[in-house]
Amino acid sequence: MRTSMHLASANGHADVVRHLPGENCQWNLADDLKRTSLIKAVQCQQEEHAAVLLEHGANPYLTDADSNIALHPAVLSGNNAVAGLLLEHNASSDAQNQGEYTPLNLAVSKQHEAMLECLLKRPADKHTAEQCERTACAVTTSHNTDVEEDNLRLHEELERVEMELQKVEEKYLNSKHCVQNLMAALDTKERETTASALKLQDQLSVYLETVKHLEEHVQRLVFEMTRLEAPVQQQNNIIEAVQRDLEVTTTLYNQMFYVNHSSPAPVPVNPPSLLLVTLSVTSRPFPGFWKDPGEASSDRLVPRESPPPLL
Length: 311
Fold this sequence. Notes:
By secondary structure, the chain is mostly helical.
């Protein structure tokens, strides 16, 4: 059962305790867990409230259901001020709880050096004080040894980390150097590419200009060919007509030397002039004549059995 004193102790309302009547107030009433208002105030670390309760006669020796006095929770919480206040009101530092732990044992197990000093200043008895002092020295020595070992391990770890850091730094510098080289190579390549692109662009401009001139020339040639097609066709027609006439003339010319006729005298023929002669039916061939090319001033005709070549 919690009283108003327990609630005030848990919430640190020291003014409530001051206004409670001293004669009719029961300072040492316990709740269902046998915790007094003083134990509750210590557990909640209400230093001012605990001081008021002690001033009004609260008993620091009363225990809870686990046989803990108010000094036990004070040591566990590491509150030196509350522990010193309880010790001033003659709280026992060698009181054992159900686990047979005294406040000194708890301070040693928790390695609260300041709490140990506070407890050793007001020991319960000489034997306990000496035992706790030896325990405190052992704990301190063990703690110092652990600290030295931890420092040694930390030093070794620090050296290892420094070596790894140095390796990482070297890798970083190498990577940085490689990156700088790559950047320089990229800049050089970019400049070369830019120069090559400009050169190709100039060549392309020249090629385009040349192609333009060639296209204009081709257009002129096409126009000239179109213009010459009609005269060429006319010339072709004339050539074809001349070839047909030549074929007819050649045929007649060849026939005139092989046809039999009855002319009393041979008629001279000038083949280059392509003159036609009158042919008569005869039983013998009519010989042809042509001008002797060896005698330039002679008008003599030379007989020939076959017709002369048509020039």
